[in-house]
Fold:
Amino acid sequence: MKLRNQNGAALVVVLLMITVFFVLGLSLLSSSLSNTKQVNKTEKEMQALDLAEMGVLHYQNHFKVNAYKYLKIPIETAMNNAKNDTMKKKLDAVYGLLDKEDLTYELLNFPKRTIDEHADYDVTIKNSNSIFSTENDKISVNISSLGTIHSDTQNTIDATIELSIQQLIEDILNEKSTSGNAENDLPVPAGLESCQYTNNLILTNGCFYDNLPATAMFGTVIGGIDKDTIAYINGNAIIGAISGGINKDTRIDINGDATFGAITGGINKNTIININGNGIFGEISGGINKTSTIFIKKNATFGVISGGVKDEAKICVGGKINGLDLLKILGKYPSGIYSYVEDPNSYNEAGCPPPNNTQFDPLSLTSQTLATHTAIVNVKYH
Structure:
């Protein structure tokens, strides 16, 4: 009887243990299945997010390709037209030449992309009627990229793809202006002494002017320059009016941009004016005479030259000439006025100083430059 009771108790214990292990097993299995389901869900969400990001990047590339296709000619034409001498004129020229309708069509035409039968992304344009902003000179496209996995898991990214046309042009111009090196500077004539600059100083013979402000202001000359004068200005300069002309063997070198006031009495004898940048001259009355030479490395603007360019004198401009179009005959300047950009053969045949050609190569827009200016901004994950 005692043995029978012991066997019964053992059976109860065994059954109880089986029940406990069964319940624990079900609990662990349920937890494992739940974790697996959560991991799968998280993995699918991450895959959907990756697809949404892929959509943003692919649309950015689509933007770059089409922006370059439609902007290259308008931007290059605007930058290389000497009449567009302000940023506003350049931008107005770009928008005047740009085929906005066709570019808009291309930017809006971005079809849904399928990666495989279980994965795709779809990019929607949110501002199809306001891509161009002429107020801040930007092309901006607001997009929403939706990534989908197995048709039931989705992730969305909102972003803006934008390109500043003004910043693009400014950087091209800055790159061009800083692409040279010290070898492109005007050589300093021997024997000059370093002279201290003060505002409205009169040019002095034998002086090398350095450590100048952004633009050095030199005063008006009354009675003309009647002594042989050599002066070197290592920077940008504004020269006041010269009343009485330049009458001796004078050489003025300006290693930057220069603006001259009116010169009355002409530029005479063997005067040499070298400008290693852009040059602007007021009216020159009395003409440019004898063997005098004005060499301007970049672009030039002239007022009236009454008396003309006579004898063996010449104006040599590496860039374009503004203000003298009325002097052209059959589209060409008369003897004595030469532009390397407009007529390199005549420029060279006249014996003009050889320009550094890299300074006058037409400004160009490369696909790489445009790509670096195409930004992804205002990114929001949903």
User: Anything to note?
Assistant: The chain has two domains: 43-177+367-381, 189-351. Helices lie at 2-79, 87-97, 100-108, 165-177, 344-349, 357-360, 367-373.
